[in-house]
């Protein structure tokens, strides 16, 4: 790092950066103002980054609003660990001269594998079978064979493309819809309504933005087959959660595998927790050790390259 650069990590909680080799390399460049607790409020975040020139953001719960960015007049770079930027007011960042970077692609294999695991767990009813077998039962019942079925991918970024390949690898027919169609990617593209109506597994791989918030609502879920499974490893707010709960409870769709939710952590009394046709995981799809280290290292590399005058992975 360049000398005398004020670097702040305001929100490493639960701690991931401090345990990484990437952090060791960061410290070699000088002192870092490190916090292993969440700021707790907009005011708390503003206080932590007020003197920062560079911020490395770990948790999406830290929201970089106009007010927060205005409180940090020296800030030049916001390096985000992860791909999502829904916690950053990008227009405000531009107004304040703050470059925003992220870490695209590094978690794609881990998240795609997790999506496949969710699909198989829901289709095979693995949690219920495991529970009943442990109780001494020997359950039988219908399961969904994914081989030969149709996988509908919504969003063809690095994760969507990787999961499409995994789905094809177990014998699924893959169709896709994306906001930015590119025939050169080699996927069979269809209209969104056709995908929802024909897919046996629908998997979301969109970034959360004003355009995608509530993207899959009551009408869209209503187009899905009664035998279909919905997967979401992207962001909880992309789906109308109340509409999804209603559809699952009424068996208007067969099941769901969810790694993300509108409120995180998911409250213990949330309606999703009472449903037996849902598999839930704690926003953990991308935190395989290899992916974790690679993403944190890239967040640090983005800082290093920016300070050298060679910005990379710039979001805006």
Keyword list:
Rossmann fold; alpha/beta; about 325 residues; 5-stranded parallel β-sheet
Query: What is the helix fraction of residues, given as a range?
Result: 25-40%
CATH architecture descriptor of the largest domain: 3-Layer(aba) Sandwich
Strand content: 5-15%
Q: Give the N-terminus to C-terminus distance in angstroms.
A: 23 Å
Number of domain units: 2
What class do helices, strands and sheet pairing give? alpha/beta
Detail the poorly predicted runs. none
* Element string (H = helix, E = strand): EHEHEHEHEHHEHEHEHEHEEH
CATH homologous superfamily identity of the largest domain: NAD(P)-binding Rossmann-like Domain
What does this structure look like?
Helices cover 33% and strands 13% of the residues. With 316 residues, it is of the alpha/beta class. A six-stranded parallel sheet has the order 7-6-8-9-10-11, sandwiched between helices. A five-stranded parallel sheet has the order 2-1-3-4-5. The longest helix has 19 residues, at 289-307. The radius of gyration is 21 Å and the shape is globular. The chain starts with 6 loop residues before the first strand and ends in a 9-residue tail after the last helix.
Sum this structure up briefly.
The chain is of the alpha/beta class and 316 residues long. The chain has eleven helices and eleven strands. Helix content is 33%, strand content 13%.
Q: Topology of this structure?
A:
Blueprint: E1 7-9, H1 21-28, E2 32-34, H2 42-49, E3 54-57, H3 66-70, E4 77-80, H4 90-95, E5 99-101, H5 108-123, H6 126-134, E6 150-154, H7 158-169, E7 173-177, H8 192-198, E8 201-204, H9 218-222, E9 229-232, H10 241-249, E10 255-258, E11 278-280, H11 289-307
Parallel strand pairs: 1-2, 1-3, 3-4, 4-5, 6-7, 6-8, 8-9, 9-10, 10-11
Helix pairs in contact: 1-11, 5-7
